[in-house]
Each structure stands twice: as structure tokens, then as C-alpha cells.
Specification:
The chain is of the alpha+beta class and about 130 residues long. The protein has one domain: Nuclear Transport Factor 2, Chain: A (Roll), CATH 3.10.450. The protein is built from four helices and six strands. Strands 2-1-6-5-4-3 form a six-stranded mixed beta sheet, with helices on both faces. The relative contact order is 0.20.
């Protein structure tokens, strides 16, 4: 396993372990975060705020994680399945009643100086909405 593949796998293992302090340690200070169908944010403070909000509304676990990296060591991508529980209603979304969902997700990364410097997530929002309604 190359170092960037290990970096991404460790990042997701920290996510699954709910060890968000460790998860943040894999990110650069000026992390660029592109959320699915959302705004771009920059910096660990904004990323931390996003994770806190996500943890309020959802309980998620990732599996079937496949990581791909480029030979230059600057880019990576991952594909996985997100298993979740919608536990609290998020403004503008359907009412949460503990609905379970399973979504295929794609994620793209930039890597700089052995840290993740960009995270861009994609999943099918319409599929998620069908599963929680």
C-alpha cells in the first residue's frame, strides 16, 4: 500500500471509529471541502463545524472502501458504501424518524505534504431522499 492510499484509509478508519480528532489530523490547515450539492468551505475550523453538524443529524459507517491514487502522489479517490441512520431532522429535509439508508459515495482528494488538502464528496441526493421519505 502506498503512503497516500494509507493516508486515505486511515482517514476513513478514524471516521468509522468516530475519532474526529484523529480524522482532522490527516487534513491540512487550509483544507478545501466541497460538500455534495453544497458550498465550498476552507479551513479546519469550517470542516470541524461541518462534522459537528453531520454528527447531530446522522450516524454513519463506511464500508467496501476502495482507494485509488495517482503515481505522482498528489491525487486520490475513494468509492465506498455509506450506511447511515437519519437521527435528527435537518432544516429543509424530510423529518427524521431513525430511517436507515445505504448510499454509494465517491470522494476525490488532493494531497499536499502528506496531508489531505481537498475533499470533494459526491452521492445521489435523490436516492437518499427516496430512502428517508
Amino acid at each position: 500500500m502506498n503512503p497516500n492510499e494509507k493516508l486515505i484509509k486511515d482517514y476513513y478508519q478514524a471516521f468509522n471509529d468516530k475519532n474526529f480528532k484523529l480524522m482532522l489530523s490527516f487534513l491540512s490547515e487550509d483544507i478545501i471541502h466541497d460538500t455534495n450539492q453544497g458550498e465550498r468551505s476552507i479551513g479546519k475550523k469550517e470542516f470541524t463545524k461541518f462534522m459537528e453538524e453531520m454528527n447531530l443529524f446522522y450516524d454513519e459507517y463506511l464500508d467496501q472502501i476502495i482507494v485509488m491514487t495517482n503515481p505522482e502522489g498528489k491525487r486520490a479517490s475513494a468509492e465506498f458504501v455509506c450506511h447511515g441512520i437519519y437521527k435528527n431532522t435537518c432544516l429543509g429535509l424530510p423529518e427524521a424518524k431513525g430511517q436507515k439508508y445505504n448510499l454509494p459515495v465517491g470522494c476525490f482528494f488532493d494531497i499536499y505534504e502528506n496531508k489531505i488538502s481537498r475533499v470533494t464528496n459526491y452521492y445521489n441526493m435523490n436516492d437518499w431522499l427516496k430512502q428517508v421519505q
